[in-house]
Amino acid sequence: MVSPAIALALLPFIVTLLIRYRHYLLLLYRAVLVAWLRDRLTGTSREQRAFQYLLAHAIPGDPHHILQTFDQWCYHCEHLSCARATSGRIVERVLLERAPLRVLELGTYCGYGTVLLAQGLPPGARLYTIEGDPRHAAMADKVICLAGFSEQTGPAAGVGLIVGPSEEVIPLLQEKHGLMNTNLVFMDHCKRCYLRDLRLLESHQLLAEGATILADNVLFPGAPHFLQYAKTCGKYHSKLHRASLEYFRTIPDGIAELRYTGTH
After folding, report:
1. Which of 32, 58, 91, 111 could cysteine-pair with 54, CB 3.0–4.6 Å?
2. CA–CA separation, 20 vs 24, rounded Å?
3. How confident is the model at residue 27 (pLDDT cuts 50, 70, 90)?
4. For residue 76, which phi and psi values (nearest 5 degrees)?
């Protein structure tokens, strides 16, 4: 048992830690503890609860309003990791500047990023999005349909959802799914997979020369090996956009923007 004297001596240090890391503690509370408790009480996942909120409040067929409704849920109800704020603006800028015809998204999750990408695609473009979790993929498919981007409803003829681990799907993209190469890659899946999957894209010649790679959350939770490789391998012009974690303005984060040169 800790003596009162030691406890009093440690108190300023503990208070300092609580003040310094209060935003991360709030994230832990909202993203983990609250979600766990509501999962148990309701018998549904937070992703399912978010989709029910979309059904009740979003305008079907209006991608912009669906993204806004997602944001409202994440700000005021429960936390979901979606590409919003700075990341969303960078995605929209790249889509406008580059007008990519072949886009690959790694990490569909609930479909937020897919809708964000799909609404900015030029005519005739094709978006491939890969999700490893079948439960998340099932919800994302519903969100894509709600936004009017299903393969059965016209505007979404350019959106294809592929379910499976990225390390298994990427080697099959050319032969099985018809993606010969891509002009834009958006990474928002497991951060420790960023470098592995980037090298898979390289080895299978899936990056067109001049292709742009956008990688979200490279500072928090972080992808240090990916960033180091991008800076030192000689194949990319890279820059880091400083941002904040989605729906937590006080937690610093960043999105990496790489331009593939094809050189070694």
Report:
1. 58
2. 9
3. low
4. -110, -15
